[in-house]
Structures are given as structure tokens and as C-alpha cells.
Write a structure and sequence with these properties.
This protein is of the alpha+beta class. It has one domain: Ubiquitin-like (UB roll) (Roll). Helix content is about 15%, strand content about 25%. The chain contains 2 helices and 5 strands; from the N terminus they run E-E-H-E-H-E-E. The protein has a 5-stranded mixed β-sheet with strand order 2-1-5-3-4. The longest helix has 9 residues. The termini are far apart.
């Protein structure tokens, strides 16, 4: 089993040190849900299909994330509260090179 240590700041401003598995095909949205860091029904509304932006996060420290894909870019172009460092949690799949990732969960529309 392989894990990475990441920091997630919730919508209340509280930072959580989280251990995320890299061998379970999980994405950041699923990690946030499993740790219950966002109110039920306010994250992953579309089920992780890059169609709602409810899992938007701001990347505070990027240890080397994969580049943004076309679907993610298109969804963020239509989303609220978007910043230059916005990403969709559902599109960030947990991997060993995410060690040290720091994100803040964006406000829910």
C-alpha cells in the first residue's frame, strides 16, 4: 500500500493533514468526501464527471500535478470563484508524485 501526505483546507478555513492512498484509483474529490471535509451534497455533485465544478480546489502547493485536460479547462471556464490556481478535484488522481500537495476547497456556488 502506498500513501501520500497532503494538506486540505476546508471551506471553514481549517487545514487538515490527510493521508491519501495512491493504490486505490481515488481522486482528490473522493479523498475530500471520505474524510468528510465538505458538507454532504456540496462536493462531487455530478459524481466526478467534470460537469459541475463543485469539487473545485485552489492549489496552494503543486508538487508536480498533471496538466489540466480539455474537459477540466472547459468546466472551469464556466464555473464560479475560479482563480489562476483552480483545479477540479475529480480530475486529480492520487499518485506518488502528489506528496506534499496543498489545496484549499473553493466556496460552493
Amino acid at each position: 500500500m502506498s500513501d501520500v501526505n497532503i494538506k486540505i483546507t476546508d471551506r471553514e478555513g481549517v487545514t487538515h493533514d490527510v493521508v491519501a492512498p495512491t493504490d486505490m484509483s481515488m481522486n482528490l474529490m473522493e479523498i475530500i468526501r471520505s474524510y468528510e471535509l465538505a458538507e454532504e451534497g456540496t462536493i462531487g455533485v455530478c459524481g466526478g464527471m467534470a460537469m459541475c465544478a463543485s469539487c473545485q480546489v485552489y492549489v496552494i502547493h503543486d508538487p508536480g500535478l498533471e496538466p489540466m485536460g480539455d474537459e477540466e479547462d472547459a468546466m472551469l471556464a464556466e464555473a464560479f470563484h475560479v482563480k489562476d490556481n483552480s483545479r477540479l478535484g475529480c480530475q486529480l488522481h492520487m499518485a506518488d508524485d502528489m506528496e506534499g500537495l496543498e489545496v484549499e476547497i473553493a466556496p460552493y456556488p
